[in-house]
Amino acid sequence: MSSAPVSVSALLKSRIRTVRDWPKPGVNFRDATTLFHDPEAFRATIDAFAEDCAKQEIDIIAAVDARGFILGGALAYKLGKPFALVRKKGKLPYKTVSEDYHLEYGTAAVEIHADACKAGDRVLIVDDLIATGGTLLAATKLFRVLHGEVIGVAAVIDLPELGGSKRLRDVGLKVHALCEYSETE
Question: Enzyme group, top EC level (predicted)?
């Protein structure tokens, strides 16, 4: 007798670590790095993203510094697509375009290489988590400056109470999150 398959969301939530009061009191940090240490969960994550991507026409996978790189790199490899980096300001060696944005607990800037995409390229942006949506919105603006078409964002975790996924949908982006958490979980 075999057990019923566990949903991807349930599997991932059983493997994601929550660190209470980090990086400051009152914040419940959802630590997706535990997925990278678990081959079953990591494989399920990439396979779930790839299944969703098969329903879309995508030219480039882009990912946000730093945990997004792990996810986006694996997804780009699986799909045989080019991979573009969205890095913290000052980390890329070539000509860049930059965008400032607000985090849930501060401000920052991200940038991409000026040749990260061509006009008309369909871009999917990957990150580990959607909180306020600021990082993904900034990344979207960067690709749009280069006349790329950001078709959506993919994340392992959505924190809908913080409003990020709504902000992303409000600017016309498809949002795919594999699981979500409330602040009380």
Answer: transferase
Question: Full-prediction pTM beyond 0.85?
Answer: yes
Helix (H, G, I), strand (E, B) or coil at 140: helix
Asked if residue 179 lies in contact with residue 154, where contact means CB atoms within 8 angstroms, the answer is: no
Burial class (CB in 10 A: 0-12, 13-18, 19+), 22: exposed
Indicate which residue of 20, 51, 57, 67 is catalytic.
67
| 125-164 b/e (C-beta count within 10 Å ≥ 16 → b) | bbbbbbbbbbbbbbbbbbbeebebebbbbbbbbbbbebeb
Select which of 43, 99, 104, 183 is catalytic: 104
What domains sit in the chain, N to C, each tagged with a CATH number?
56-180 (3.40.50.2020)
DSSP SS3 for 57: coil
pLDDT tens, residue by residue, 75-131: 999 999 999 999 999 999 999 999 999 776 678 999 999 999 999 999 999 999 999
